[in-house]
Every structure is written in C-alpha cells, then in structure tokens.
Amino acid sequence: MSGPSASPWVDLRQVTVRYGRVQALDRVTLRITPGERVALVGANGSGKSTLLRVLNGLADASGGFQCNTGMRQAMLFQRPHMLRTSAQNNVALALWLRGTRWRDARLQALTALQRVGLQGIAAQNARTLSGGQQQRVALARAWALRPDVLLLDEPTASLDPHAKREVEALMADFAASHGAAGPAHPVTMVFSSHNLGQVKRLASRVIYMEHGRLVADLPVHDFFNGPLPEAARLFVKGELV
Ligand code: ADP
Ligand code: MG
C-alpha cells in the first residue's frame, strides 16, 4: 500500500517511563498506522494510562519516539473535565482556543452537540449533567476539533450500563468517521478498557499489557480466538467470568 495511510501515526522504539522506582512502561515498541482502532487491556497498574499519556505527548519517556505531528489528536478521560459554564460554551471554548471566532465557535459547538444527541441541554451548566451526558459533551468537544486521532482512557468505566452503551455507540460512530484531511484519512482510535465486550465490538487490534510491557499485540479476531500467552489467556478468562 502506498500513500499517506501507509506511514505510521506513531512509531515507538523501546520506550520506557519511570516514576521513581516504578517502571510504568518497560521498553515498549509499538507502531500504529492511521485508521487502526487499538484497545489497551490489562490489570490496574499495567501501564495503560501511561502509554496513552506517552501517545498524547504528556509523559516524560526515554527511547525512540516518532510521531506524525500533522495529525491532530484529542484525548478523553474516565471523568471528563467540564468548566462551570454551559455545555455549548464548554465545546465552543475548545474551538475558540484553537482560533475560531467566538460566534462561529458557538455555532459549531451546537452542531457537535447535535451529533451526540445533546442539543436539548446545550444551555445547561455542564457540571450539573450526568456522567454519561458529560462524557458525551467531551466527545462533542473532541469531535468539534476534527481530530485525526482520538485517545480515550477508560471512557465508559464510571458510567451506568445505559450511558455506557450510548458512549460506546458514539465511539463507534467517531471511529467510522474521518479527520479534517478528508475521507481518505479515517480516524485512528486508541482506548483502554476493562470491558472485553466493548473491546470486541470496537477494536481492530488488541494489546494486552502487564508490568509496563506489551505481552500480546494481535488483531482482534486472533486475540479472542487464537492462542494467547498464558498471562493474557488467564486475564481474558478472568474478565469474562
Ligand atoms: P493502568 O492505567 O494500566 O492502571 P498506569 O499507567 O496508571 O496503569 O500505571 C502504571 C504504573 O505506574 C503503576 O504502578 C502506577 O502506580 C505507576 N504510576 C502511574 N502514574 C504515576 C505517577 N504519576 N507517579 C507515580 N507512579 C505512577
Ligand atoms: Mg489507567
């Protein structure tokens, strides 16, 4: 394959992150190409959030790191950060910070809220919304910025089952869309999750982590159907019961 999609979004070589004595990432080598939907799974403390922070450029890492900086990225967390103002302003501010005129930002924010089904509560203080609604506002905010890459750290972990399904459906929708560069540039998604059903539904590739290392890195079908390293097999078995 040739063209821009053949070159990776990121290329990590032997990347290590230390917090004092803790090795949060241990010589991680990883290449992610545009359009991939990568799920990070593993026990608490295995390094999923640290890897997402490295991918988002927020962690102090050693090793080789190459990134296509032409691709815009956005990140979502388990608990979204909402400012004490309307849902619409929360989205509009993100656009305004990127240089959009306030009036246009407000209009685009409304369109983004429509896309996540929240136009009805656009004027409501975002801090008073439910967890699921706040996560949808966070998705609208990310959406409005037209990122090429969406990073999500356990985006549905603190939500009730109904809100989980709604947010998951929006993630699927997001993953099926494309970045600002056009239809030839599908969105790349990297997310961590404890929900293996969700991983099966959303991911094209699954990475199992343990003690900061990538223990398995497989296409989704192989991860759930093929042989796995023993630790990963036990993890999958444990999470599914
Ligand atoms: P996960 O997201 O899989 O639960 P993390 O990436 O949060 O794992 O953590 C990996 C390891 O790094 C854990 O041992 C955790 O305690 C440690 N760690 C993460 N962030 C920090 C930090 N800011 N300071 C010290 N230790 C940290
Ligand atoms: Mg984490």
UniProtKB/TrEMBL annotation:
InterPro entries documented for this protein: AAA+_ATPase, ABC_transporter-like_ATP-bd, ABC_transporter-like_CS, MetN_ABC_transporter-like, P-loop_NTPase, PstB-like
Keyword field contains Zinc: no
Membrane topology designation: Peripheral membrane protein
Cellular location(s): Cell membrane
Superkingdom of origin organism: Bacteria
One Pfam family it belongs to: ABC_tran
MF terms (GO), sorted A to Z: ATP binding
UniProt protein name: Phosphate ABC transporter ATP-binding protein
